[in-house]
């Protein structure tokens, strides 16, 4: 968002109504709807991260842009992702495998499949 905030400097914000704003740049203009969290550039609804147009609106309205970021971008979500204990498998050379497990040989099922598309087993009634 900090990087994008440099892109919003040349944007002009003009209100359409209480929730919708027209944001125009040098060659294009977009409509930001802060109530429905949408922008016509679609970044706000797809990435759920404020686009430069939304950032320009938030700056002009003195609103907190972080309230419009998805929860999944927060450090809390990141921490919760790795909250559970993760057991790494480690080096296979250092594994302690019981002999009865070690001696089991697992091979692919002994089945021959003909190449091509399998025939249908269903037949239509006459
Ligand atoms: Zn936008």
Overview of the structural elements:
The chain is of the alpha+beta class. The chain starts with a helix and ends in a 24-residue tail after the last helix. It is 23% helix and 13% strand. The chain contains 5 helices and 4 strands, in the order αββββαααα. The protein has a domain at 2-74. The chain has helices at residues 2-5, 43-46, 52-61, 75-81, 99-102; strands at 12-15, 20-24, 29-33, 38-39. It binds zinc ion. Residues 30, 39, 41, 43-44, 51, 53-54 line the site of zinc ion.
SSE topology:
Blueprint: H1 2-5, E1 12-15, E2 20-24, E3 29-33, E4 38-39, H2 43-46, H3 52-61, H4 75-81, H5 99-102
Antiparallel strand pairs: 1-2, 2-3, 3-4
The structure holds zinc ion (ZN).
Residues 30, 39, 41, 43-44, 51, 53-54 line the site of zinc ion (ZN).
As residue ranges, the low-confidence spans are none
Q: Which strand order spans the largest sheet, edge to edge or round the barrel? A: 1-2-3-4
Rounded radius of gyration (Å): 29 Å
**In angstroms, what separates the terminal alpha carbons?**
67 Å
Give the rounded overall mean pLDDT: 89
Helical percentage: 10-25%
Please work out how many helical segments DSSP would assign. Answer: 5
- Write the H/E string, N to C: HEEEEHHHH
| Main β sheet profile | 4 strands, antiparallel
Instruction: Please identify the structural class as seen in this structure.
Output: alpha+beta
Which of globular, elongated, flat, extended, rod-shaped describes the shape?
Answer: elongated
Secondary structure tally: strands: 4
Strand content: 5-15%
Which small molecules are bound? zinc ion
